[in-house]
Amino acid sequence: MRGWSIVTFYGPGILFLDHSDPNGNHWIARNGAGYNWLQNNALEKVEPWVAPDAAVVVMLGVNDSIGWYERDFQELAAGDTDKYAELLNRKAQKWRGKGAMVYYCTINPVGKQPGDDDFYFSDVSWTDNQKLESWNNEMRSKLSEDVEVLDSYSYIKQNYYAPDELHYDDATNVRMFDFLVASVLDR
């Protein structure tokens, strides 16, 4: 592999800024963005790096699955797996045609520790792990064969800590990063 790119919308809290590293990896990220940003900005920024032997890893986050709103208060397609899957399938077909591998990383669990499926933030019930599992299953069933699913949810659920029940601690983020790298390099 020459390099790989991670495109994240909100993900597990490991990436919040665009940057490239000395190894040729490119990270496109924005904390708390939304579907419109993913469609109109993030996925377009990937284009220059799509080449044979490159890998594009697309990560979404909790906000995508719950009907949240973008910063400009335009309603998202959040919770609409059809819209997300259609977008990713369309891009994946194009990128695979250029020789890149395309991966979708499942949305990861919430709660402070494994088995803590009750999630409350600011006294508002946003979601729980059962809803996230449902989202992940729907996405898995709607993605084309051009997209390989990386089941980070199952991997991280075995051992994670999120002090605020949403954003992981450093040790969990390192495990998540290691999982992604190993998953891509093993294929």
Task: Describe the protein's topology.
Layout: E1 3-8, E2 19-20, E3 26-29, H1 35-46, E4 54-59, H2 62-66, H3 81-97, E5 101-105, E6 120-121, E7 124-125, H4 129-142, E8 148-150, H5 152-157, H6 170-185
Parallel strand pairs: 1-3, 1-4, 4-5, 5-8
Antiparallel strand pairs: 2-3, 6-7
Helix pairs in contact: 3-4
Uncertain ranges: 6-16, 69-77, 119-124
Largest sheet: 6 strands, mixed
Overall spatial form = globular
Distance between the termini: 10 Å
Instruction: Note the run of SSEs as H and E.
Output: EEEHEHHEEEHEHH
Give the C-level CATH assignment: Alpha Beta
CATH architecture: 3-Layer(aba) Sandwich
What percentage of residues falls in helices of 4 or more residues? 25-40%
Number of strands: 8
Tally of separate domains = 1
What class would the helix/strand composition place it in? alpha/beta
